[in-house]
Amino acid sequence: MLHLKLATDPRWVNIVEKNIEEILTDHAWCEQKAATNAITIITLNSEYPDLVTDLLLLAQEELEHFQMVHNIIKKRGYTLGRERKDSYVNELYKFMNKGGSRLQSMVDRLLFSAMIEARSCERFKLLSKELKDPELSKFYHDLMISEAGHYTTFIGFARKYGQDIDVDQRWQELVEFEAEVIKNYGKEETIHG
């Protein structure tokens, strides 16, 4: 369903398990950034009422996820660390068309967002299956389902409003680009790292 070209090496979970506090802090900030991204898309494309409505709900859900991760951090006696830079997302951002039409920019932003959700979903699935911690395993299973819904929302709006753009071709180009980017990741205890 997610159409990712390169799967995460399952050994990444071994890295994650060595520093649960770090993965939780990174994850919390990923959720905050996802909420901010949805709000940015709304701000730039407020003339689409259905997009605004659905992305407001998505942003709220991302903030709820941020709170859920923060609650786990507190429950375990950890402290939410400082915001983390997400090099994967920054590299993926380079794919976006900066000089195209407003519509092209919107479609690219939606596809960029769908890709991040797809990779997060794939990583959460791996965590849900491979983590030895039952609480976190269930937590990531539940979030995996949510991320899949977010992926569908973003790609659905790209297809709906990108009628004059070959959205499927652009998506395939992004899938190829992401496959090259992700080859450099999977070595750190971060959601995308």
Automatic annotation (TrEMBL):
Organism domain of life: Bacteria
Record-linked Gene3D superfamilies: 1.20.1260.10
InterPro entries listed in its UniProt record: Ferritin-like, Ferritin-like_SF, tRNA-Hydrxlase_MiaE
Any single Pfam family the record assigns to this protein: MiaE
CDD domains reported for this sequence: MiaE
Protein name per UniProt: tRNA-(Ms[2]io[6]A)-hydroxylase
Organism, scientific name: Arenibacter algicola
